[in-house]
Amino acid sequence: MNYGKHETEKKIKSVNSKAKKYTSRVFLAFLKSLFVLCLFCLVVAGSIGFGMVKGIIDNAPDVDIATIVPNEYATTVYDSAGNVTETLVTAGSNREEASYDELPKNLINAFVAYEDARFWEHNGIDLRSIMRAVKGVLTGDSSAGGGSTITQQLIKNSVFGGGMEKSFGERLERKMQEWYLAVKLDSAMSKEQIITNYLNTINLGKNSLGVKVAARRYFNKEVSDLTLSECAVLAGITQNPSKFNPVTGQKANSDKQKVILQYMVDQGYISKEEQEEALADDVYSRIQDVEIVTKETSTPYSYFTDELVEQVQDAMKEKLGYTNTQAHNMLYSGGLSIYTTQDPAIQSIVDEEINNPDNYSAARYSIEYRLSVTGADGTTTHYSEENLKRYHRDNGDSGYDGLYDSEEKIQADIDNYKNSILKEGDTVIGESLHKTLQPQASFVIMDQKTGQVKAIAGGRGEKTASLTLNRASNTLRQPGSTFKVLTAFAPAMDTCGATLGTVYYDSVFTVGKKTFSNWYSSGYQGYSSIRDGIIYSMNVIAVRCLMETVTPQLGVEYAKNFGITSLTDTDYNAALALGGITDGVSNLEMTAAYATIANGGVYTKPVFFTKIIDHDGKVLIDNTPETHRVLKDSTAFLLTDAMADSMESSRKFARPGAGPSSTSSSANIPGMSNAGKSGTTTSNNDIWFVGYTPYYTAGIWGGCDNNQKLTKQNGGTSFHKAIWKKIMTRVHEGMSDPGFTVPDSVETAQICRKSGKLPVSGVCTNDPRGNAVYTEYFAKGTVPTDVCNNHVRATVCAESHCLPTPFCPERTTAVFMALPAGEEGATDDSVFAMPGYCPIHTEASVIIPPADDTGMPETAAPGTLPYGPGYVSPNAQTSPAPTIGSPVQVSPGAQ
């Protein structure tokens, strides 16, 4: 029995062993096959990859690698009539070549340390940097840095036109060819030649191409004279000339400068002491924001072209994925044809009126002044207009505001200042003076239906250089009351259920520690509608609308939808309704916002060009503007109708002489429907008017560049509306007036202007100031159903017009205002509040006859008691139950 069991176990073990051997053989065979297959795939893939790489390299541009010169063609700009307006010549037209010997060692070392630390050792490409860049891409580490060497960047900019491929495959192909050519270039050209060519071609912002021009542009000196701190400033620009520009991006450039100086220490180019000396140098005080770059054309670009340049480069970066340098190179050397939206006839009108001295009551000057003095001890001191201001303050000249009445007075003041600071042995080594006419103005006009900007003016006075300060598009100023429509009234009616007739109580109003007041001196008005708030630009109504109906959060959201991009996280407050925002807005964005209302509530991003054709005749960009709906068409019309009323001469419904006047009548265009809103900041630093017709929307800003108040001496606060009217009148000459079309979504109803509700006949019509009933426009479905409860009718003594006592011999009825609880201060409505009891006919003034046997006076009416529930002391203020009237609303044609 045991023997049989043992034999069975042996057989089982033998079977299992054979099975394991068979499985091992099968698995080994599978592994061999898999290995052969993988090896085959690798060989095939390698062959294909090698063939692809070889093909890409074989297709690399056939260039004389030792004499790399970019192929550059002029770009031509056309206006809407097909006229050539500008020629943007090749990028090298304002480039000046510096030799290697002219370049300071610190300048070369600064660029090498930051851009390509192994520049002097590698053979054109840096495998370590490439692997680091690949790792950064794979891990999402944006701080890992790029893999391009200085040699590659020179190849990319010179051979590949800046690298302008649209697809990943094209970029990969270019990168491989770039590596191949970089190695080839490194063997054919010395490192000194490569770094010199690179520094002579890079874009350093402010239209400064190459380090030689940049040294003059930013420091007004030759490149060979640059200090270590100045070299680090220039090296910090090239990565992003817009962001790190030392004039407009000083903080970002300063941070970059510190990094570069540390790199130079780490790589042994400078000592720690040299680094500390460079960091202690107040280099940014010497950077002069002046245009000393060689001009690309015989005359400076227009303000329109200035903005066009920025718009085109932005479009290339956004739509084609170009970098700053790529977009710049393509614009100036790509041989493009740019078709703009500029209307030459309209632009001519705008330029004439903005620059007409007869349109201004003042012609003063602000200055930018620089003075550099080397003392007898060898130290150099730099002075600016800020030092000049301090000089006036120190001498007790509290009235000095930085503005001068004439050029002669400027020179006399500077001479006096120099005499006060110059000492024996001092040498003036540099001095510059730039004068700017004040007050300044900007103007934008666009077609609201297409978003096409037809003309702009970025300033008043002679334009002496290209790409200068453009007050129409690149300057942010406080918008004042023009913001009321965008942040308070528009969202209130569009989203929150308010109507043009909705009333708020105009009286003392405080939010937090801020008490808001109106711009006019005629006092608080009491119940006032949104229409009133627009026509008469009532501050309290706008603020109460924002805080009681809209909320600042919704107001900011609407402003952003209107295209305002300059709002910050600190703007969520009550002052938002009045344009009291942190950074201000640009005229271009304000005009586009109002064009949204003019376009039935649809925002269209303003465009300066329609299409760009490349050098080969292909469409590079078809510039169809972005659009989105912001308002219902009914809301847009309601706002338009109220703003049209603001341009008609009228006074608010109030006692004679007690109501404010409409704010925009001086801008009214004769013979053409127009609507608009004015804006003036609290201290009269900024004045605005933005308005539109059925054809065009236009915005004008006025003010002083350095925020001096617009006193009478500085031009006053009304010249802008007159200029707007003159320009728009000339633009619309010969055009028919189609009016503003009433959309099907709007209906009309009669309401009371003091409540915004349905009127009570005989009550609202008998307001002490006149008939308070008028016809208002409403979005369909929003006509009120409640009746006015702000007017009340009561019986009064015919003689005193106060509530009657039992002793008043004659009585009549009168209409009064029911005031809201908790409101303080006198208003135009409080004058007509329910009165007290008659002070004439009191118990003391009447002879009471003897009582009969019932105890009642013989003349008392049956059923009354002289001191019973129907009578209150004449000194009491309690009113008898009034007859309820109806709410009031402001009429579109308010008087």
Word description of this protein:
InterPro entries: Beta-lactam/transpept-like, Glyco_trans_51, Glycosyltr_51/Transpeptidase, Lysozyme-like_dom_sf, PBP_transglycosylase, PCN-bd_Tpept. Pfam families: Transgly, Transpeptidase. Its EC number is 2.4.99.28, 3.4.16.4. The longest helix is centred in the first third of the chain and has 57 residues, at about 1-60. With about 900 residues, the chain is α+β, with helices and mostly antiparallel strands. The protein is globular and about 120 Å long. Helix 16 (about 480-495) packs antiparallel against helix 21. The chain has 22 helices and 24 strands. Strands 2-1-3-14-15 form a five-stranded mixed β-sheet. Residues about 45-50, about 135-145, about 290-295 and about 850-895 have low confidence and may be disordered.
Strand content: 5-15%
C-alpha Rg (nearest Å): 39 Å
Distance between the termini: 127 Å
Q: Taking all residues together, what is the mean pLDDT? A: 85
InterPro entries: Beta-lactam/transpept-like, Glyco_trans_51, Glycosyltr_51/Transpeptidase, Lysozyme-like_dom_sf, PBP_transglycosylase, PCN-bd_Tpept
Pfam family, one: Transpeptidase
Keywords: Antibiotic resistance, Carboxypeptidase, Glycosyltransferase, Hydrolase, Membrane, Multifunctional enzyme, Protease, Signal-anchor, Transferase, Transmembrane, Transmembrane helix
Region (Disordered): 649-679, 858-895
